[in-house]
């Protein structure tokens, strides 16, 4: 089964220094039916004004994945760790109890645009506090996984995050390991076809789709497409 969640249906915010779109309940946006999906707690696309920052705050026990689409960000914690992330790079923060984290747009004359995901972290797993990778120029690659396979970022949860970058007319079929997955179009239009239900959904820029009980998904791009497939077996 494939159920779309269009960008227009998502929560939004415009505070001047911050513009945001929220897939799930976050901040002032609250929908009791959309508190997350399996271990995926947060999926936001946010734009920070030049020089803007999020002040230090604590997190629940989650892995915070930041995918920078435009500009440059710096992430700091109260333990003195920091990582700078440019467009075309991603960073993973393994949040800890009693540690606060901040985010800064390091550019004084350019907005920062990024995707941010929160994933529940297993209590028995510990990883490096910060990880960073440069995104390869590839049609498909593994962005994050439980074991850091193929150079991917290592999560504290059984989740596999695939990054897709397709040209118009290209398609790819990916296996899905468990009962749930989520497909997010970062930009571009896509047709998503489930192998079990044979259901198809068309997604536009910013749209997403809940994938349920499909053992594989075929993604076809009708325009230049950049997307994430978040595979969540539990």
UniProtKB/TrEMBL annotation:
Record-annotated Pirin N-terminal domain positions: 5-119
Transmembrane segments: none
Residues in Quercetin 2,3-dioxygenase C-terminal cupin domain copies: 142-232
Superkingdom of this protein's organism: Bacteria
PANTHER family: PIRIN-LIKE PROTEIN YHAK, QUERCETIN 2,3-DIOXYGENASE
Family to which the UniProt record says this protein belongs: Belongs to the pirin family.
Protein name (record): Pirin family protein
Organism: Rahnella laticis
């Amino acid at each position: 089964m494939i159920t779309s969640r269009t960008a227009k249906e998502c929560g939004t915010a415009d505070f001047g220094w911050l513009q945001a779109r929220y897939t799930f309940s976050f901040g002032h946006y609250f929908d009791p039916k959309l508190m997350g999906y399996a271990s995926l707690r947060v999926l936001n696309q946010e734009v920070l004004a030049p020089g803007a920052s999020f002040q230090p705050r604590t997190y629940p026990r989650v892995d915070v994945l930041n995918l920078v689409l435009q500009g440059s960000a710096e992430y700091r914690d109260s333990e003195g760790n920091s990582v700078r992330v440019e467009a075309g790079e991603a960073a993973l923060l393994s949040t800890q109890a009693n540690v606060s984290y901040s985010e800064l747009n390091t550019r004084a004359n350019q907005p920062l645009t990024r995707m941010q995901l929160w994933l529940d972290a297993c209590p028995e797993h510990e990883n490096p506090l910060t990880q960073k990778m440069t995104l390869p120029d590839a049609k498909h690659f593994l962005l994050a996984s439980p074991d850091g396979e193929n150079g991917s970022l290592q999560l504290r949860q059984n989740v596999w995050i695939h990054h897709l970058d397709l040209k118009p007319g290209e398609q790819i079929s990916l296996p899905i390991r468990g009962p749930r997955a989520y497909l997010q179009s970062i930009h571009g239009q896509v047709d998503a076809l489930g192998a079990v239900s044979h259901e198809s959904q068309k997604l536009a820029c910013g749209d997403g789709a809940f994938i349920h009980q499909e053992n594989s998904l075929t993604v076809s791009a009708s325009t230049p497409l950049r997307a994430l497939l978040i595979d969540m077996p539990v």
